[in-house]
Amino acid sequence: MDETERLIEVFRAPATASVASRLSALMNLEQLGDPRIVRFFLDVLADEREPKQVRLHVLKRLRSGHFKPPDRALVAESILRIVSDHSSECLRAQATLALAEFTDIDNVPAAVGSLALNPHESIDLRYSAFTSLQRAGPTTECVALLRQLSTDEELGGCARGVLSSWHLE
Predict the structure, then answer these.
(1) Which residue stretches of the chain are H helix?
(2) What residues contact 31, with CB distance under 8 A and at least 6 apart?
């Protein structure tokens, strides 16, 4: 058993049920740089039984976006699932912000834009989505989404401001 496998077992062991010990095991895993860790982190992120703090920690680590192309698509897909499921508002907001690093992946800008445009979502979640679109830069898709958002009662002024700063309004 190598160090990565050992630390995954430590994380999964019932004796390490406390959030602090689980976070410690995750931080030790992060230091290894083993490519298997990405898949393990995706499993932890998807596990709704995990404490919110553990899932948030993993999400923040995945947020870097520095992955090989096949892993980038898997990470983006996993984060999109968090945004669309019934996770806590905090976790969904952080997932939405994380998607800014993955706007080059198919379906990500559309999903983020849909969230920003949805008046039934909380303003915090919608603003997180707007921020991710802004960070993506003036791509054709983001510009079109921000133009749609520019008529929104709550976020329209922000969208118009970004379009103006991009010299598009």
Answers:
(1) 3-12, 19-30, 36-46, 52-62, 69-84, 89-98, 108-117, 123-136, 140-149, 156-165
(2) none
Q: In whole angstroms, how far apart are CA 156 and each of 1, 70, 127, 145, 162?
A: 55, 35, 11, 11, 10
What CATH class does 35-165 carry?
mainly alpha
**Blockwise average pLDDT, block size 10, the chain, 169 residues:** 87 77 89 87 92 93 82 93 87 94 92 95 95 94 96 96 92
pLDDT at residue number 115: 95
**Beta-carbon neighbour count of residue 160 at 10 Å?**
18
Rounded CA-CA distance 130/147 in Å is 12
